[in-house]
Automatic annotation (TrEMBL):
<dbReference type="InterPro" id="IPR006139">
    <property type="entry name" value="D-isomer_2_OHA_DH_cat_dom"/>
</dbReference>
<feature type="domain" description="D-isomer specific 2-hydroxyacid dehydrogenase NAD-binding">
    <location>
        <begin position="116"/>
        <end position="295"/>
    </location>
</feature>
<dbReference type="GO" id="GO:0008465">
    <property type="term" value="F:hydroxypyruvate reductase (NADH) activity"/>
</dbReference>
<dbReference type="GO" id="GO:0005829">
    <property type="term" value="C:cytosol"/>
</dbReference>
<dbReference type="InterPro" id="IPR050223">
    <property type="entry name" value="D-isomer_2-hydroxyacid_DH"/>
</dbReference>
<protein>
    <recommendedName>
        <fullName>Glyoxylate reductase/hydroxypyruvate reductase</fullName>
    </recommendedName>
</protein>
<dbReference type="InterPro" id="IPR036291">
    <property type="entry name" value="NAD(P)-bd_dom_sf"/>
</dbReference>
<dbReference type="Pfam" id="PF00389">
    <property type="entry name" value="2-Hacid_dh"/>
</dbReference>
<keyword id="KW-0560">Oxidoreductase</keyword>
<dbReference type="InterPro" id="IPR029752">
    <property type="entry name" value="D-isomer_DH_CS1"/>
</dbReference>
<feature type="domain" description="D-isomer specific 2-hydroxyacid dehydrogenase catalytic">
    <location>
        <begin position="11"/>
        <end position="325"/>
    </location>
</feature>
<dbReference type="GO" id="GO:0051287">
    <property type="term" value="F:NAD binding"/>
</dbReference>
<dbReference type="Pfam" id="PF02826">
    <property type="entry name" value="2-Hacid_dh_C"/>
</dbReference>
<dbReference type="InterPro" id="IPR006140">
    <property type="entry name" value="D-isomer_DH_NAD-bd"/>
</dbReference>
<dbReference type="GO" id="GO:0030267">
    <property type="term" value="F:glyoxylate reductase (NADPH) activity"/>
</dbReference>
<comment type="similarity">
    <text>Belongs to the D-isomer specific 2-hydroxyacid dehydrogenase family.</text>
</comment>
């Protein structure tokens, strides 16, 4: 594809990544990068993408027509260091025959673990409890203080029964839950049988679940699916957990549902916008636990994601199959 005699393909990397991932890129490519831990600004991205053969990007970089036009006709590979790709204008990318790499599988366990952690932190009020212990609110052991709903005997509903949803389900089973139900576009019958989960429609899932967990991708179909109407269908004792994308929630509806106790509480790893402004109404609610999008943040997952993204770029540039190409 790129012979020895030709000049090295040019790659732009939009963030400081691991030395290992940089090294394998540099062996074969001419690499330039935004070397900071904070996101690259739009202007710097637009300037630097120009004339590149490949782009290593993150979910904080919106890759749309403007970026693609600026990149020009050399751009053949876009690899995102994420499993989510709602920040990519896939139609525009496909029109230009650009291949897309992403990072499924390698972050599944980390994200499933965090989902369980967030669920327990929310239902058992861990952050509030820690705060009380520190600020003198803990006067004595108290029978009904800081209580929350338990998982034992509960019905758990998972919206989006893909890789992450299934791993969340497996991890929750040993908590002795009564029923595991899921809502998913495709059937996933084999996986569901193995795990012991039942497919139901969304109405039923919302009405029956003590814990509603969103692990679905953000698509036009799932956008703001958790709205006033959905929250009203949920039990007043229900806990809502979101580790997918903030965009699946109509956030004003969620604020209303938490304020008026339409639902019991919520744990969010993702929201709109990110970062969530510190004066956002969600931060004022005690029944809402907020994390800064750390689902995949294990050391292992993040370094493997960086490596996989680099490998996707190298394979794509060499005209080989990418280890993880997004085929849509
Ligand atoms: C992803 O990969 O899409 C997650 O949101 C971050 O790891």
């Amino acid at each position: 594809f790129y012979s020895e005699k030709m000049s090295k393909p040019k790659v732009y990397v939009t963030r400081a990544i691991t030395t290992e991932a940089m090294n394998i890129l540099e062996e074969f490519c001419e690499v330039s990068s935004w070397p900071e831990p904070d996101p690259v600004s739009r202007d710097v991205l637009l300037e630097n993408v120009s004339g590149k053969d490949a782009l290593f990007c993150l979910l904080t970089d919106r890759i749309d027509k403007e970026v693609l036009d600026k990149a020009g006709p050399n751009l053949k590979i876009i690899a995102t260091m994420s499993v989510g790709y709602d920040h990519l204008d896939v139609n525009e990318i496909k029109k230009r025959n650009i291949k897309i790499g992403y990072t499924p599988d390698v972050l599944t366990d980390a994200t499933a673990e965090l989902t369980v952690a967030l669920l327990l932190a929310t239902s058992r009020r861990l952050l509030e409890a820690n705060e009380e212990a520190r600020n003198g609110g803990w006067k004595a052991w108290s029978p009904f203080w800081l209580c929350g709903p338990g998982l034992n005997g509960a019905t758990v509903g998972i919206v989006g029964f893909g890789r992450i949803g299934q791993e969340v389900a497996k991890r929750l089973k040993p908590f002795n839950i009564k029923r595991l139900i899921y809502h998913n576009r495709s059937e996933k019958a084999k996986e569901a049988k193995e795990i012991g989960a039942t497919r139901v429609n969304l109405e039923e899932l919302l009405a029956e679940s003590d814990f509603v967990i969103a692990t679905c991708a953000l698509t036009p179909e799932t956008k703001e699916m958790f709205n006033d109407c959905a929250f009203k269908k949920m039990k007043p004792t229900a806990v809502f957990i979101n580790t997918s994308r903030g965009g699946v929630v109509h956030q004003e509806s969620l604020v209303r549902a938490l304020t008026h106790k339409t639902i019991w509480g919520a744990g969010l790893d993702v929201m709109t916008p990110e970062p969530l402004p510190v004066d956002d109404p969600l931060f004022k609610l005690k029944n809402c636990v907020i994390l800064p999008h750390i689902g995949s943040a294990t050391i292992e997952a993040r370094s493997t994601m960086a490596m996989l993204t680099a490998k996707n770029i190298l394979a794509g540039l060499k005209g080989e199959n990418m280890p993880a190409e997004l085929k849509i």
